[in-house]
Task: structure prediction
Amino acid sequence: MDGIIRRRGQNGKKLIERDPIADLAASYAPFGILPQQVRDMSAGDRFILRAGRSRFFEILMRCIQAGIVYALDPPKEEQNGEE
Result:
């Protein structure tokens, strides 16, 4: 399975949806958690993985924002009584 669900809507048009479990499995595959292991997990365990992934991206976003602020407005160097 490629992580995409294909079906037809009420008007006969093809609809493509992402499989949320496959999306979650793709996020954790580099850490050694296999897609089948994610599929076999309980809903509570998958919720913990989703919360962890969300927290990771929030922290990453804050680090990037801090880096941009620092690059655009670096802190002023203090002069220790020297002129």
Notes: The helical segments are 20-28, 35-40, 43-72. The beta strands are 4-8, 14-18. The mean pLDDT is 83.
